[in-house]
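[Meeting: bench + compute handoff]

Bench side (C.D.) handed over the final construct sequence. Compute side (W.E.) agreed to return the predicted structure before the next meeting so the bench team could plan truncations. Sequence as handed over:
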Amino acid sequence: MKIKALGALAGLALLAACSSNPASTVASTGTGAEKLQGPAPGSEQDLVANVGDRVFFAFNKSTLSSDAEATLDKQAAWLAKYPSVDVLIAGNADERGTETYNLALGQRRANAARDFLVAQGVAASRIQTISYGKDCPVAAGNDEAAYQQNRNAITSVQGFNPQNCH
């Protein structure tokens, strides 16, 4: 009888263990405080995940669209939150056009993004720009879908190169 009772208790204990909540997505800091796991605040991953790191341009243009301005507004707020973070803005072009033209166009795009951020209160000394022209495409292909993705300005935290260029 005792064996049956012990078996029943063991079975209940096993069922209770199986029905418990799955492991949570929190990590302990060792101080009793818990926080959600995710990108480190002020990191490149935080910028990409929570703000957006790129803006897109029309063919042969370096003027900012309303969508681009909305993204840059978020970037400016993020940079205000992390005043020790410096960024690099890389201007890019699609593969059409000469190397010289596309380098100049990429620089105008990077400058347009920088100028917008500065107008929103980000110190110019925190922002560097570079143009890769058509040398660092983010999308492969020779169609309009790829061209649209490659006409951009990408903001990255200094020391992080999302395009692995140069």
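W.E. noted at the follow-up: Confidence is low (pLDDT under 50) at residues 1-29. C.D. will use this when planning the next construct.
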